[in-house]
Amino acid sequence: MSTVPLPPDYYERREPPRPRRNWKRIAAWIAGGLMILIAVFFIGIVALIHNNEFRQYLLRIAHTKLSETVGIQLKMRDFSVHLSGLSPAVDMYDVVIDGAPPYETPPLLKVDHLSVGIQIVSLLQQQWYLKDIVIDHPVARVFVGPNGDTNLPTTKNSNQQTSVFDLGVRHVMLGQGEVYYNDQKSALDADLHNFQFQSTFDPAPKRYSGGLSYTDGKIHFQNLNPLVHSLEAEFEATPDRFTLTRSLLTSGASQFSLAARLHDYVQPNVTATYQASLDTGELRQVLKDATLPVGVVKLAGSAKFESDPKRPLLDTLSVDGNLSSAGLQIHTTTIHTLIRDISARYLLQRGDAEVRDLRAALLGGGMNGSFKMHDVTGAQVSELHATLHNIALASIQALINPQAMKDFRLTGTTNANVDAKWRKAFDTLTARTDATAVGALYARPATNRPPPQPSVPINASVHADYSASGQTVTFNRSSIRAGQ
């Protein structure tokens, strides 16, 4: 037997050597390198942002771009950027927007601190939204010059149209705001302090909801006393509707509450309900008008507005409500009296004003009446109808000539119907009255004790017409009988 090895079998295939898995190692190195580059990139950005000279450079670029594209002169002292995952935030300090010339100073708006937070949903799909906007101590100053020029800058038109509902700001907070308004043309000043505003956004229905309030608000017009007031309001807004769910304006003892709904921002359709309690004594002090009565007047009703550029404003506005007052005191240099139990219904429709069912207790008796004015903004054709019943003659005497009551006293009552018409001014007034009076005239003795019997009986029937243009009074079938 030979020990020489047999020749190889050429038909037997050898197993090829296994390839080395170097591609996994290469991919790992590439991924690690990219992560290091990204980390270095972000570290470099953060380092640059925290560099004062680089921040000032960015501020100069932002100021130039805003001025060129929008037309607003915006400046800020400094800013900082905070990164928290996919929620970066920018804090800006001492933000200033200059007013339009020639009223650049003081600035139109100054904000101590402005923070804007962004939530990134997807980097690949470029989806993001504004998460938070916080405005601390904004001070706005609006100025109107004697020629009507304002410090409001004229913004440049932009080809991009972005709705605030598309931005979807999730939360807005404004605190310690101040607003100053000075209109030299109409001598109007307004200051609002502790201005607060907050808003949240619900992305599903694209709805904003929030509130607005301020205290110690002052409105000063010409030579009148300032009107000090405060405001609280809550609202909801969608792309096609705005709802004022609640609002309350308070000034001293006076209050005015309003709830309203607006449809269609382009051609508004507004419906509203309101309630008011007005202290006319406070209004008397603000207006510096001693002839205004003193008391509390309550109003309640509804209003509707339908925008129509082809019609006058008052033709598109309708108001319906009720007025009431427990009593109004009239104190002037010549008149001192009290009117009680006042009530009326008022309407404004299609440019016409009307007061219906006017009732009041006065001068010991009562009054019913109505008033109409056709075409309030134009012809102003007015009609007044009033009925006086059981008015005490003694009250009329005390109202007209109280000094005469020392010598004699009237007793009895009078009834009267009054119809009046005029057009715009009272110099076109024409009036007719039908009145009757039954009473007596007493002479006052020195002891101030009334005599047992009337000294002079009075019985009068008056039918008269008055014309303001001719300043004439015409009597018809009138008589006044005194004595037996």
Can you give a write-up of this model?
Helices cover 14% and strands 55% of the residues. The chain is mainly β and 484 residues long. The protein has a domain at 381-484. Strand 17 and strand 18 (381-392) form a beta hairpin. It is elongated. The termini are far apart.
Structural key phrases:
484 residues; mainly beta
Topology:
Elements: H1 22-49, H2 52-69, E1 74-75, E2 78-82, E3 89-97, E4 109-122, E5 127-144, H3 164-167, E6 171-183, E7 188-202, E8 207-221, E9 227-238, E10 241-251, E11 254-263, E12 269-279, H4 280-287, E13 294-306, E14 317-331, E15 336-349, E16 352-362, E17 365-374, E18 381-392, H5 393-400, E19 408-423, E20 425-443, E21 456-467, E22 472-475, E23 479-482
Parallel strand pairs: 5-6
Antiparallel strand pairs: 1-3, 2-3, 3-4, 4-5, 6-7, 7-8, 8-9, 9-10, 10-11, 11-12, 12-13, 13-14, 14-15, 15-16, 16-17, 17-18, 18-19, 19-20, 20-21, 21-22, 21-23
